[in-house]
Amino acid sequence: MLKKKVLVIVAHPDDETLWVGGTLIRNKKRWDTTIVCLTRKSDKDRYLKFKKVIKVLGVKGFIYDLDDEHLNKPLNQQQFLKTISKHTKNKTFDILFTHGLNGEYGHPRHKEIYKAVVIAIKKNLIKSKQVFFFSYHKIKNRHQGYAIYNSSADILIKLNSNELLIKRELAIDVYGYDRGGIGFEENSAGLIEAFDKFKE
Known about the structure:
Blueprint: E1 4-10, H1 15-18, H2 21-26, E2 31-37, H3 44-57, E3 60-63, H4 77-88, E4 93-98, H5 103-106, H6 108-122, E5 128-134, E6 136-139, E7 146-149, E8 155-158, H7 161-174, H8 184-188, E9 192-197
Parallel strand pairs: 1-2, 1-4, 2-3, 4-5
Antiparallel strand pairs: 5-9, 6-7, 8-9
């Protein structure tokens, strides 16, 4: 059976796990997936962890070093397009996943990448038969808060116990985030993954 060609565009190492990890695990044998992570290549800790994660997910992973330190400065759109075109030029994907309008929990780079991807799609610089945006929002608690799925999302995917276990192992054990119910990432690596469809 011909595998679907899937592209995942994310800001940071771990976004591929938190927002779409379970879905990638579920479709590991059915999809030919490429993950493009736009920041933190020079962060050796996160870089090495990202490399471990893509092996578990069974995907091709590429990581770059777009600015993630100066969040008051907008994402360089030309740099984004130059980087992403290495993977999209003369290609049409079956499915594209990327950040949502609100940046899941409001992260500036997530929101900017959403906008950059939408512009690239409209200019035909990224071609995909289906486009899905991560659909989550932030919940406050007495610790770091966390992101939870939007119940009104176009697509809700409930993970099975094995998918959730692997996803949480990647988020907590590989990336090394806090456990015990207090960490943002642990609580955000949830049972349900949510996506909104691209609407022109």
